[in-house]
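#struct-queue
[09:14] JT: dropping the first one here, sequence first, then the C-alpha cells:
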Amino acid sequence: MSNQSVTNINQATFRALADPSRRAVLDLLRRGSLSAGQIAQSFPVSRPAVSKHLRLLRRANLVEERRQGRNRIYRLNPGPLRAVDSWLEQYRMFWQTSLTNLKALVESEGAKKASKGWKKWKM
C-alpha cells in the first residue's frame, strides 16, 4: 500500500479540509498572504474561532505562519494539497477508463441496434 507517513499527512489534510470555513480560508490565501486579522474580517465568526481554524490548518501543514511585528501572516502551503491531488489521480484514471469503456459499449450497442433497424427497413 502507500507509505505510512504520506497516509498520516493525507489524514491530517483531509481532516483540515473537511470544514467549509477552513476551505474558505485556503481560498482566501490562494490570492496571497494575509494577516490573521484580515482573514478574520472575512468571516462572521469570532477571531478566536478563526484562530482555531488557522491553528488546525497550520498543524496540517496547509498554511505557513510568520510573524511580522505583532501580526501573524499566513500563506498557503500547496505541498499537502499536491499529495491529495496525487492520491486522487488514481481515481481520475479509474473513472476515465470506466467512462471510456462505457462510451464504447453504448456506441457499440447503438450501432448494433441501428444496423438491425436498417435491415428491417431495407427488407
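[09:21] JT: and here's the second one, same format:
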Amino acid sequence: MSIFGQTIRRSVPLLGLLVLAACTNNGGTNPNNAASTSESEYSAAQGCNNVGVLLPESDSSARYEAYDRPLLEQEIKAALPGVTIQYANANNNADTQQNQADAALTKGACILVVGPNDSEKASVIVQQAKNSGVPVIAYDRLIQDPDLAYYVSFDNKRVGELQGQYIVDQFEQGNFGLTKGANLVMINGSQTDNNALLFREGAVSKLQPLIDSGDLNLVYDQYTPNWDNARAQSLMEGVLTKEENNVQIAYVANDGMANTVIAALRAQGMDGKVLVTGQDSTLTGVQNILTGDQAMTIYKPIIEEARATAQLVAALSKGEDTSSIVNSTTKVATGEDIPSVLATPVVVDQTNVKDTIIADGFLSQEEICQGLPAGAGNVCP
C-alpha cells in the first residue's frame, strides 16, 4: 500500500504504520507522554475472556458490518485465544446501544469495545462499565467521557484536512472547470458523531483561506442527522433548487452520502461535472470514482484499527503495559487526555486506486470492475 510516497506492506508491524500518524487528534499530545491506563481501575479486565463488541450502525455506511465486525472478531480471537465475543449493532439508535451494553455486562462482558452511535450519550455506557470495573475502548468514534480507557481510530481531523486540501488542489489546478467564485456545498456527517465534527474542522481549515478570498463561495454548510443517505440526497436537491444548479463543488463527508448526492446531481444532468468528495473507500464509492462521478475518497485500512483494538484487549486481559501500543492522546470535551491509537488516512482518486485499495487487498479489481465499462478509470480491463 502506498502512503504519501512510502510503500507499506502488510508484513510491517502495526506500530510501523501507526507511527506515521504524527498529527494528534483534537488536541492530542506527544504519545511518548501518554501514560498507560492504570490496571487497578479495571479489576474485571484481569484474565477477561468475555468481550462485548458494540458497533453503531449499518444503514448509512456498509463498513461496520462488512469490514469492522469480521476484522474485530478475527483479530480479538487471534490476540486472545478462547475468547467469547458478544456482538451487537445499535442500528443508529443510542438507546438501543445502551440496552445492548447492559445486556453484555449482564452476560459477563469484562471488556467493552464500543463504536458509539452518539458520542455524548455513550458516556452512560462508560460509567455503567466503570461501576463494574470494566474498561471501555472507544472504537472508531470517540466517546465523550473522561473515564474512557482507550480510543482507537484514525486521525480524523487529518481526514478532513485531506478532503479539504484535495478541493484546494483541484481549484488551483483549474480542474473540473473550477474558477474564482465557484460555489461550494458542504454536506457533513452527523453532529452527534465526534468524528463528523473533526472531519468538518479539518476540511474548513484548508478551505477557509479560499472562502475568505472569494475564490470559493460557501453556499451551504449543514450536518446530516445519523449520516442518513436519503437525507443527504434531499439536502442536495434543495441546494440545487435554491442555487438554480449553480454548484461546482460538493464536499460530502463519506461515500454513502456522496452516492446519494451524485443521484441528485444525475437527476439534473450534472453528475461528473461537480467535484464530489467522499470517505471510507466503499465499493460504490470507488466505482463512482472510476466512472468519474466522484473525485476522491479517503482510504482507512480498517485492519490496522481492528488489530490495535485487539492488542489493547489482550493487554488489558493479561495485565500488560500498553505504552508500546498507544501512539497519541485525544482530549475529550472536559479536557482529559485519553490514551489513543490513531492510524493514518490516505487520499484515493483515479490515480492511485491500484496502488492502495487493490494492492492492499481491501477491494479486488474484479469486484470493483463488476458492471463497469472496460477501461473505467484506467483500472478495469
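[09:30] RK: nice, looked through the second one.
[09:31] RK: The CA atoms of residues 50 and 170 lie 49 Å apart.
[09:31] JT: good to know. The chain has a mean pLDDT of 90.
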